[in-house]
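From the shared-data thread, chain only:
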Amino acid sequence: MKIGTHYVVTNKRVILKQGLLSRNAMELMLTKCEGLSINQGLIGRLLGFGTILLTTGGATNVFSYVTDPIKFRNAINAQL
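Structure, as tokens:
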């Protein structure tokens, strides 16, 4: 996880908050989630991070540098 970045999975949405001085937040409704994929290169697999792509209504939302993306994906799938 990057410093100042928080990823949260609730029973209704996925929330991404970024920033130390300024704040950027994104919320995705889980009911709108159509697809989920993980991209993890060799370095990411060795160091335990990756990128998650969530498709909602034709739009693709990218969560970069997620620590343990398999665990994050499992948390999303558990709520679906």
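The chain has a mean pLDDT of 85.
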